[in-house]
C-alpha cells in the first residue's frame, strides 16, 4: 500500500502541526503535538472518520483534500447524529477519528484520546425559501398551527435547541423530532415543515432551498465541536494525520468557508 | 450433506434472538416494561399496523384479483411493479411518499390546498407508509391463492345466475380465505416492524408517530437497556400473533 517514502508526508505533517500550534495556540490538549513527535510515520490504508451530520459538507471536502495531500490514503466518512455515532463506536465500529457536534457525545465514547475543540456552531431558524408560513422568531415554535421539526434531544442540535427554549421560556410544539440535523434540514428544504432549528452552517449549506432567521437566544447555546482519535484506532497514524489536517490552516479554511466559527 | 448448513442456517436465525434474551435486563424489566413510553409506542404500533393491514386488504384483494383473473394487457409488468415496494429500500419508499403525498408533493399539495390536510407527521402518515411497504406481501399471497383456487366453482356460480360481485363474495373469497389470512398476517407483521419509510415520511414524535421500531432505534442511543426491553416486547407480540393465528387459520403457510 505505502508506495512512497514518507519524506513529503513528513514535511506536510510537520507543516500542519506547526500551523496548528501557531493558529490554535492551545498547547494543553495536544493530539497535534504528539503527532508531530511521531512525524516519521508512513501513511497508508484507510482512515475511518465518524463525523457529526452537520459536518457533512465540510468533512467531505476535507477528506478529499486530505487524500490529495496523502496519496495512497483513503478517507471513509460516516455521517450521522453524534449520539448514533457514539453508540456505533461503543459497539465496536472500526473508527479511527470521531468528530462530534458536542462534548457530551464525545464523552459517551469509551477509549478515546484527549479531544481538541476545532470549531463552534450556533443555531439558526431554517424556513423554506420564501418563508411561506411567515416565521419571525423563536416564539413561532410554540404555535401548534405551524409545522415544526426539531432534532431529537440526544443529538447535539436537539440538546442545544432544548437549552435555547429553556432559556427563553418557550415550550415548543414540534411535529417531528429528527435523528440528525440534516434530516431536520431536509424536511425544511422539501417544504414539509414551516421551520426547524438547525445550525447556521446547515442553512448555509442548503441556501438554494432554505432561508435562515437569526435569533438572539441562539447565543445561549453555542456548540463546541470536539475531534479526537480513538485509542484502538485500526489506523492510528492515519487518524492522527487526519486530525492534524482538520486542525491545520487548510482545514480551518474549509471549515470557516462552511460557516463554522473558530473555537 | 444438507444437515450441517441447515443447522447453521437455523442458528444464524435464532442466535441473535437468544442474544436479546440473554442481554435483557431481567431485574429491572418490570419497571421498564410498565413505563408510559413503552405502552404509548406499543399501542401506536398495534393500531397503525392493524389499520395499515385493513387498508391493504381493501385495496390489495381487488388488485390481486385483477392480477390473477383479469384479462388485462401487460399483466406481467403490472405484477412486477406491484412487487417493487417489496425490494425497494423502505427509506426510498419514504422519500417517494414524501415527494408525492408530502405537503409540496404532486398530490399532497392538492390535499393541503383543498382540505388543509397533510399526511406527513400524522398517524395517517404512519399508516400510509406502513401500507405502502406491506401491501405487496398481501397481494402476492392472495394472488397465489386465487391461482390455486379452482375457477370451475366460479363458473358454476355464474351458470346458476350469480353476478360477478356475488360470485366473488360468496364463492371466490371463502375459497381463498386461508391465503388472505396468511397474506394479512405477513402484511401486519411487516407493517409492525416498519422503520425506514415511517421515519422518513411520518417523522418521529412520541405518542403520534414514534412506533416501536423507531422507539427501539432511539432508545439505543440513550439507554440501550430500554432498547432491549422494547425489542423483547416486539418479539413477544410477533411470536404470539404468528403462533396463535397459525394454528387456526393459516393452513396456507404450512
Automatic annotation (TrEMBL), chain A:
Keywords associated with the record: Metal-binding, Molybdenum, Signal
Pfam families linked to this entry: SBP_bac_11 (PF13531)
Residues given in the record as molybdate binding sites: 54, 82, 181, 199
The keyword Nucleotide-binding appears for this protein: no
Taxonomy, superkingdom: Bacteria
InterPro entries per record: ModA, ModA/WtpA, TAT_signal
PROSITE patterns: PROKAR_LIPOPROTEIN, TAT
UniProt cross-references to Gene3D superfamilies, sorted A to Z: Periplasmic binding protein-like II
Alphabetized GO MF terms: metal ion binding; molybdate ion binding
Keyword Ligase: no
An annotated GO BP: molybdate ion transport
Family to which the UniProt record says this protein belongs: Belongs to the bacterial solute-binding protein ModA family.
Name by which UniProt lists this protein: Molybdate ABC transporter substrate-binding protein
Organism: Kribbella turkmenica
Name of the encoding gene: modA
Amino acid at each position: 500500500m505505502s508506495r512512497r517514502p514518507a519524506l513529503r508526508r513528513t514535511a506536510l505533517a510537520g507543516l500542519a502541526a506547526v500551523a496548528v500550534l501557531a493558529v490554535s495556540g492551545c498547547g494543553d490538549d495536544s493530539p497535534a503535538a504528539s503527532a508531530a513527535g511521531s512525524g516519521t510515520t508512513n501513511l497508508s490504508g484507510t482512515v475511518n472518520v465518524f463525523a457529526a451530520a452537520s459536518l457533512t459538507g465540510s468533512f467531505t471536502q476535507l477528506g478529499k483534500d486530505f487524500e490529495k495531500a496523502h496519496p495512497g490514503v483513503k478517507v471513509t466518512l460516516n455521517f450521522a447524529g453524534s449520539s448514533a455515532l457514539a453508540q456505533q463506536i461503543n459497539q465496536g465500529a472500526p473508527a479511527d477519528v470521531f468528530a462530534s457536534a458536542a462534548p457530551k457525545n464525545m464523552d459517551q465514547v469509551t477509549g478515546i484520546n484527549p479531544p481538541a475543540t476545532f470549531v463552534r456552531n450556533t443555531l439558526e431558524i431554517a424556513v423554506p425559501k420564501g418563508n411561506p408560513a411567515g416565521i419571525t422568531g423563536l416564539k413561532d415554535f410554540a404555535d401548534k398551527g405551524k409545522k415544526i421539526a426539531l432534532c431529537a434531544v440526544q443529538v447535539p442540535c436537539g440538546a442545544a435547541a432544548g437549552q435555547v427554549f429553556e432559556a427563553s421560556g418557550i415550550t415548543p410544539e414540534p411535529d417531528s423530532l429528527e435523528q440528525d440535523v440534516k434530516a431536520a434540514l431536509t424536511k425544511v428544504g422539501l417544504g414539509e415543515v414551516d421551520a426547524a432549528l438547525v445550525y447556521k452552517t446547515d442553512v448555509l449549506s442548503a441556501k438554494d432551498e432554505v432561508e435562515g432567521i437569526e435569533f438572539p437566544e441562539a447565543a445561549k447555546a453555542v456548540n463546541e465541536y470536539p475531534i479526537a482519535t480513538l485509542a484502538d484506532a485500526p489506523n492510528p497514524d492515519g487518524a492522527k494525520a487526519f486530525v492534524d489536517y482538520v486542525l491545520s490552516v487548510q482545514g480551518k479554511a474549509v471549515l470557516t468557508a462552511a460557516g463554522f466559527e473558530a473555537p | 450433506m444438507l444437515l450441517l448448513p441447515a443447522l447453521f442456517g437455523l442458528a444464524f436465525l435464532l442466535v441473535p434472538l437468544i442474544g436479546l434474551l440473554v442481554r435483557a435486563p431481567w431485574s429491572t424489566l418490570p419497571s421498564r416494561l410498565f413505563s408510559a413510553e413503552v405502552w404509548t409506542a406499543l399501542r401506536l404500533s398495534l393500531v397503525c399496523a392493524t389499520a395499515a393491514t385493513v387498508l391493504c386488504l381493501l385495496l390489495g384483494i381487488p388488485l390481486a384479483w385483477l392480477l390473477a383473473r383479469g384479462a388485462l394487457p401487460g399483466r406481467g409488468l403490472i405484477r412486477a411493479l406491484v412487487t417493487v415496494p417489496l425490494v425497494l429500500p423502505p427509506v426510498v419508499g419514504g422519500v417517494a411518499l414524501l415527494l408525492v403525498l408530502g405537503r409540496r408533493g404532486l398530490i399532497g399539495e392538492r390535499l393541503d390546498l383543498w382540505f388543509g390536510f397533510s399526511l406527513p407527521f400524522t398517524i395517517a402518515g404512519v399508516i400510509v407508509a406502513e401500507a405502502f411497504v406491506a401491501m405487496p406481501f398481501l397481494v402476492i399471497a392472495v394472488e397465489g391463492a386465487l391461482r390455486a383456487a379452482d375457477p370451475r366453482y366460479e363458473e358454476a356460480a355464474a351458470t346458476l345466475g350469480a353476478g360477478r360481485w356475488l360470485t366473488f363474495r360468496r364463492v371466490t373469497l371463502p375459497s381463498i380465505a386461508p391465503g388472505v389470512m396468511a397474506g394479512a398476517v405477513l402484511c401486519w407483521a411487516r407493517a409492525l416492524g416498519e422503520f425506514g419509510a415511517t421515519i422518513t415520511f411520518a417523522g418521529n414524535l412520541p405518542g403520534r408517530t414514534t412506533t416501536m421500531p423507531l422507539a427501539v432505534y432511539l432508545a439505543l442511543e440513550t439507554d440501550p437497556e430500554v432498547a432491549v426491553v422494547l425489542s423483547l416486547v416486539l418479539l413477544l407480540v410477533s411470536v404470539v400473533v404468528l403462533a396463535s393465528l397459525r394454528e387456526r387459520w393459516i393452513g396456507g403457510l404450512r
